[in-house]
Amino acid sequence: MIVFFAAAGCRDELNTGIVFGEGEVTIGGRTIKVLEAITDPQMAQGLMYRRSLDVDRGMIFIYPHPVSSPFWMKDTHIPLSIAFINSDGIIISIQKMEPDNDRRTYPPPRPFLYALEMNQGWFERNNIGVGDSVVISD
CATH for 2-125? Predict the structure, then answer.
């Protein structure tokens, strides 16, 4: 289960000029802080250029409608895992993504509304898998 709470006023710029909101996600009984990627520039940058991601930190991509776009790891230096979450609140895929690979893409099996990126292996370590229900509220 994921519960999402927006936290006003929290920002992360990483010297790129792109400012992210910050929120909290509760998933599998754990609360984590996440950066919010909502606008096109935020989604295009994602976690690019970062050298580390704290434990229990991640990024959630929030789309206005279901999409089928694949993700890639161009200029992303951190090994990540991504959970694609459909409009019914179900995790439909979790994939491991390798850093600094601008040729490989990670497509979802079908349209999704949210994508949650965490340090690689985080979902496995926390017993979260495909088919788990997700509740996101703001």
Answer: 2.60.120.1140
